[in-house]
Amino acid sequence: MDPDDFEYLTFEGTLNAFFRDQPGVLIAHQIDSYNDAIETVIPAIIASKENNPLVIKADFRKDGNNLSQHTKEYELHWGKVSVGRPVVQENTGVTRPLTPQEARIKNITYQLNVYVDVMHRLRYRDDSGNFGEWDTEEIPRVLLCRIPLMLGSKFCILGDVGPSTRAELGECKYDPSLTP
Fold first, then answer.
1. Is the model's pLDDT at 44 over the cut of 90?
2. 177 alpha carbon, distance to own chain's centre
3. Which end of the chain has fewer beta carbons closer than 10 Å to its terminal beta carbon, N or C?
4. Distance between CA 61 and CA 65 in Å, rounded?
5. What tens digit of pLDDT does each residue of 132-169 get?
């Protein structure tokens, strides 16, 4: 038997070997959960029947002291959800990729933008009480929100670079959360 095999005969040796052979195992579930939230959960919430379409009724007519019929209907239909990489916009208007190190130095949030395609429709009720045709407009990639970005997630700018590139960008090349 090889003397190095004795390492596995103790609890401490087994534990050390497990973490040595599987870097990042302690945080993998957090990164996987974050990726799932961005890719699956957020689009499912937006596409749910409770939220899509969003109907707004406005300009109610008065019938004596009571409000009765609305004269406008506005609908928002949420479409495809997409996310962008973290970027920073310079004072000159130029947009470029944002690294976690630069976000730390500038004291800004390392975040990703979430976009959604929106179709909005508007129609009016005429004096006879009937609604007219819908006026429809589609707007692609409307900024819905910004979400703090988890280091090591698939959306992180460091997620697909090697240790030497991470070191050049100011990150620890030994960080197990960034193992490609």
1. yes
2. 19
3. N
4. 10
5. 999 999 999 999 999 999 988 899 887 777 667 777 77
Where exactly are the structural domains of the chain?
A: 25-175
For 140, what's the count of Cα atoms within 13 Å in the CB-facing half-sphere? 0
Residue with tokens 């589609």: 138
Both tokens of 50, joined, read: 């409770």
Q: Which positions ≥6 away from 52 have C-beta within 8 Å?
A: 46, 77, 78
Buried/exposed 69-88: b ≥16 CB within 10 Å, e otherwise: ebbebbbbebbebebeebee
- Tokens linked to 114: 């979430």
- Residue 12 confidence (pLDDT): 81
Contact 74, 58 (CB under 8 A): yes
pLDDT of residue 170: 75
Residue 36 has pLDDT above 60, yes or no: yes
Residue 48 carries which DSSP code?
Answer: S
